[in-house]
Amino acid sequence: MAAPMDSLNILVLVGSPRNEESWTYKGIRIIEEKMREIQPVNFEYIFVQRLNVPFCDGCLKCISVGETACPDYATIGPIAEKMKKADSLILGSPIHTFNITGLMKNFVEYFMYQRNRPTFFGKKAVVTATASGGGHTVVLDFLEQTANAWGCDVVSRMGISSAQMHKPHYLEEVNLVAEEIAKTFIEKINKGELGSPKFRHLMNFRAMQNMSRNQKDTINFRYWEERNWFDAEYYTDARINPFARMMAGYIAHKMRKGVRKGNQKPYR
Ligand SMILES: Cc1cc2nc3c(=O)[nH]c(=O)nc-3n(C[C@H](O)[C@H](O)[C@H](O)COP(=O)(O)O)c2cc1C
């Protein structure tokens, strides 16, 4: 838990190829300013484009052997360390063709292991998306799911329309939203409580549980076994809504039975 006047370390991942010119960056800078008005903050911006990571080659060594076996670990490892050390994360991406940028998607591909072996419990996150017109929900949902799967509690989201940013009235609205996000973000970081998982988080846990159970002889399997997660209802002991707990358990049981019997069907 951070004390109210401790300086908070926030790591920002910017998925726009336009780096400092991007509205994604400029929008997050507004959140930074609003946070700075409340409490000292250290913001570090990682511009994904400048990392020059090649496309993930899908070798899955991060899942079977460990993340350090990734052919691009020399680039990814230091970023992973920064993410680990940060108090909180902000993930921002523009909307390209009604989806997340290829740049950001490729970047998070490298953190598949973090999804399989999550560690960021208690870390808070904010996600942002920028479009000239529309497509925010798909990107905000994807970034939120990604940060959640890594273990973070996503406390706020902000979608902005770059075509409107030159209009004073719209900019004023963005400032108000950023102010609200800054307050919530700081409050949640300082409180340091584990977020209560929602039904979709429980279902994601169960899906990973079923998958990891079938990955014998991998680092994933050992990781889950050491933490007794194969017998758990969620990663942490955060409070769970009893109805959501019951539903997730029931559906997971059905899913496991289906997989065991081999009666799954191709998707149509
Ligand atoms: C390849 C490409 C695809 C785009 N697709 C969309 C889109 O689907 N919807 C939309 O509203 N804007 C779209 N845009 C516009 C961008 O979202 C807009 O320029 C935004 O400001 C980019 O974010 P940035 O300023 O952070 O780089 C697209 C831009 C590019 C370059």
The largest sheet is: 6 strands, mixed
Structural class: alpha/beta
As a whole number of angstroms, the C-alpha radius of gyration is 19 Å
Distinct compounds present? flavin mononucleotide
Number of domains: 2
Give me the CATH architecture of the largest domain, please.
Answer: 3-Layer(aba) Sandwich
User: Are there runs of 5+ residues with pLDDT below 50, and where?
Assistant: none
**CATH hierarchy class name of the largest domain:** Alpha Beta
Helix content: 40-55%
From N to C, what is the helix and strand string? EHEHHHEEHHEHEHHHH
pLDDT average, as an integer? 95
Q: Please report which band the strand proportion falls in: under 5%, 5-15%, 15-25%, 25-35%, 35-45% or over 45%.
A: 15-25%
According to CATH, the homologous superfamily of the largest domain is Flavodoxin domain
